[in-house]
Amino acid sequence: MSVGAPHHVTTSGAAPVRLGGEMLGVAEGAQVEVVADITNLGPSLLVDATAHARVTGQCSRCLSEISQDVSLHVSDVFGTTPDFISGDDAEEGDEPHLVQDDRVDITQLLVDEAGLNLPFNPVCEDYGQACSDATPAPDGISGEEEVVDPRWAALADKFPGVGQGASSDSEEDD
Q: Which Pfam families match (predicted)?
């Protein structure tokens, strides 16, 4: 491959590790398709790749199953030798990505990208679904009759609104 000329690669296979969090992610062993452009920069390669896969998981509100196709984009430079980074940008402790056996491993880049971009607490609405009607409402939201906190009951007649939370006070101040 000549310097500066991009080389287009498309490949697919099983995900070697889980990509994403506990509630939503690409399962280990799930099918992943990677479409990449690899550009020779001389002592290094620029890898610009997009991975297409299906994320599966559960809604954090109603625990319904969620499944949707996603694309994760990564771009990084891989050196052909460990000392390809030189000058002020080379920081101690940073391990550069290296080409090994004429291959680049973008697994950790995809793990990081999925961890940063997939929601930690996914809900059905994020994926065009509605939460199940059988889902119990969180405490205090289900339309129950509001009862005055017994610690404030003696003051409730004298000071209306006491014991109902700070939100009603702050709205009056605005």
A: YceD (PF02620)
